Each structure stands twice: as C-alpha cells, then as structure tokens.
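Work Package 4 report. The design task specified in the project plan requires that, given a folded chain encoded as structure tokens, an amino acid be chosen for each position. We show below one input record used in the internal validation round.
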C-alpha cells in the first residue's frame, strides 16, 4: 500500500488552499455550547417520542405543514450512550447521565429490540436493526463494546462487560477468512448469507481492538489482525473506499462500484478507536489517505457528498448529492494525531456547515437543534428499486427534509473535540 501524500512530499497537495483559519477566527466557545444545547434538545425529543422505552428514533422527517414524523425507534445506535455522557459533562447536566444509563439498560434488558437474548445461542448479543423488517445487524453490534465499556465504568455494572464478551464471541465466530465480519441474522429465518457488505463493516478493527483490551484474549488480537488486513486490502489507491465488497474476499463488489463518503465517518471513527488502543501505524496511514481523499472532494465541491461514482443502488441515488458532515469528528481526531492544518480546516468547515443548518426553534421540540438535510427537488417520484421499508427515501412533495441520529451524535462528538482542544476564538482581553 502506498503511504500518505503527507509522507511522500514536502508539502500537502492542498496546503495552498488553506491560507487562514477564518472559521476558527469566528468560532466561539459559546457558539459550540449553544449547538450542544440544541443537540441535547433534539435527543430528548427523540427519546420522549418512544414512550417509556429509553430509546431514540433513527430518523425525524419534517414537512411544510409543520408536521414532524419520527421513524425507526429502537435504533440501537450505541454512540447515543456516549453522546448523553458527553452532553452531561460539557453542559454540566448530571441528569443526562441517567439518560445514558437508561438507554444502556434498555439495550441490556430487552431481549428482542435490544441485544438479542433468545434461544439461538450463536446469535446472542446482536443488535436489533433499524428497519421494521425484524433484522439483526452485525454492524450496529460492532459499535457496541466501546460504549458499553464506558457505561460499565460509570455504573460499575458488570452485565455490560459480560455483554461485551458475548458480543465478541458472536462476532468472532462470524469473522470470515477475508477478515470481514458477516453477521446478518433474522429471528424468523435465521442467519442470512450476505452477497455484499458495506465498507463500514470494517468497523471490526475497532471492535476486536476494544475486546482484546477488555479481555486480554489472544483470539481477539488475531481477529484484529485479520480485520486490519481486510482494511488495507479494501482501500483504493486514491484513499477512498467503495461502498460494497464481497465478504468472502474483501474485494470490491463486481458490479456496484459506487463510493459512499457517508461511510467514511464510520471508518474514521473505527480507526480512531483502534489506533488509540493499539498505536498501530498502519491505521494512521489509512486514516491520512482517507483524509486526503475527503480533502480532494471538499476543496473541489465545497461539500462532502453522500455518494459518488457509478453503480449506485436506487436507495442512494435519491440523496447522492446531499452534503454529509459526520466525518468532522474523525478529522478532528486525525488533526490531533498529525498536526495537519488541512484536516483541521476541513473538519471545521464541515462542522460549520452542519451548524448552519441546525435549527434554532426553542419552542418546537423535535425541530430545535436538528441538523436538517433537505430533499432532492429534481425527483418527482420514488425511484424504482427503493425498498418500501425505507420510508424516509420515498417521494413526498410535502417533505422539507430529515435529520438522522447518526448525524446528531457525531456532531456532539465533534463539538467535544472542538471544546477540549480549544479550537475556537479566544475572547479578546
């Protein structure tokens, strides 16, 4: 694998494009805290919309009539645990710790729509998937251990560490020789053979690194090495990743060759989690090359698009050109590890873009704090091939836009890095 452009030249290709830190000169601590206040408000509204469940919805949809529609409860996005904990710390709101513990407790105690605890022993620990199709997802499960370990440290509750071990054993059994973890299971039909997996499934590098740290079990170290080998094989020469890969080989899918920058936030988060535990320089090289690719996208388009390249599936075509901001968190991490001004500039531009579309409507729960992505005005009907259970992708002329839980939690994490790194304008004396 080629090394990063940063490691082979005297100056970064995009250095000339960063002549000043204009956003940093404008960004204030108060602004970031206000953005966090809004994000907390949105998370609270999302939780209250699932009565008594201590859960969140994956999607909120907004309409020109003023209507708000929540979709896909029990999303089981483990990052929500850490988002609540970060909000408690940064906003000095200890009550948010209870929101985190309630969310984690539901995951642990709900045997169907939390982490599976049914009769099929080799599927235990898998997380309920976000659609209403009754599917359990390996990807959502891979992201659990880091956050369950964090809540275990705060509460002293051993069951969360026990769950981490159960999750680890299930995912380890499902790791293929290629290094990919293929863990799709439906309680009605059993295990499903996956013909393709998304590049974000490489989150396994983080999962196995975390599990090795928690257990000291050498088998997790071996699983980590196989996952890293897959990661290295999957990265393209320009630093990008295709959307879909053959799970048996970790090679690109033969016909679907789209590149999905929406997945890059997942990949950067995974590398950050694994690198901070292992110090594995191979991971940092992958991250830098991916950061360079994000720079090439942003400085040309002035945005990071949801999906690019040929071979997009119909569901992605509906929002391919939409801007996505969730890589800001990973890029801020990458800046902290490399000192590169490019990654800081790009991360702050992405954060600022998200903040620009964050709603300021304190009297409207569910709207206030939402980072709303608009709809594609060029579409006049639902594209053929879009699944009916993806309601947020079906054409509706009255819809203004949507907000996703994934975008909100990653915005919170980016806010945390800005505040802890003091990456804002200092008040004048």
């Amino acid at each position: 694998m080629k090394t990063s452009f940063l490691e082979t030249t005297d100056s970064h290709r995009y250095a000339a494009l960063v002549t000043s830190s204009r956003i940093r000169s404008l960004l204030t601590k108060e602004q970031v805290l206000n953005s966090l206040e809004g994000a907390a408000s949105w998370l609270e509204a999302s939780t209250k919309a699932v009565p008594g469940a201590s859960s969140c919805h994956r999607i909120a949809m907004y309409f020109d009539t003023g209507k708000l529609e929540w979709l896909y409860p029990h999303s089981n996005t483990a990052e929500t645990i850490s988002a609540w904990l970060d909000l408690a710390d940064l906003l000095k709101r200890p009550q948010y710790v209870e929101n985190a513990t309630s969310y984690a407790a539901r995951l642990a105690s709900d045997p169907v729509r939390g982490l599976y605890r049914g009769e099929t022993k080799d599927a235990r620990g898998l997380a309920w998937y976000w659609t209403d199709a009754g599917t359990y997802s390996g990807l959502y499960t891979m992201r659990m251990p880091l956050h369950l370990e964090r809540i275990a440290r705060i509460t002293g509750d051993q069951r969360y560490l026990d769950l981490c071990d159960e999750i680890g054993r299930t995912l380890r059994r499902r790791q293929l020789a290629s290094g990919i973890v293929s863990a799709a299971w439906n309680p009605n039909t059993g295990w499903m053979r996956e013909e393709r997996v998304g590049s974000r499934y490489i989150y396994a590098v983080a999962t196995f690194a975390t599990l090795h740290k928690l257990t000291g079990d050498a088998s997790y170290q071996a699983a980590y090495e196989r996952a890293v080998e897959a990661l290295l094989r999957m990265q393209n020469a320009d630093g990008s990743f295709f959307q879909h890969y053959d799970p048996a080989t970790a090679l690109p899918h033969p016909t679907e060759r789209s590149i999905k920058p929406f997945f890059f936030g997942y990949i950067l988060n995974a590398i950050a989690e694994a690198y901070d535990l292992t110090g594995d320089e191979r991971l940092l090289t992958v991250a830098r090359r991916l950061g360079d690719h994000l720079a090439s996208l942003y400085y040309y388009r002035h945005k990071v698009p949801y999906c690019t390249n040929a071979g997009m599936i119909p569901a992605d075509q509906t929002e391919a050109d939409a801007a996505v901001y969730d890589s800001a968190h990973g890029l801020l991490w990458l800046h902290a590890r490399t000192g590169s001004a490019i990654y800081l500039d790009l991360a702050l531009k992405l954060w600022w873009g998200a903040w620009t579309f964050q709603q300021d409507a304190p009297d409207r729960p569910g709207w206030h704090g939402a980072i709303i992505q608009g709809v594609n005005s060029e579409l006049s009907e639902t594209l053929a091939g879009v699944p009916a259970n993806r309601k947020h992708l079906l054409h509706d002329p009255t819809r203004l836009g949507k907000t996703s839980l994934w975008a909100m939690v990653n915005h919170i994490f980016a806010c945390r890095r800005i505040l802890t790194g003091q990456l804002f304008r200092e008040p004048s004396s």
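The chain has one domain: 5-420. Validation will be extended to a larger panel in the next phase.
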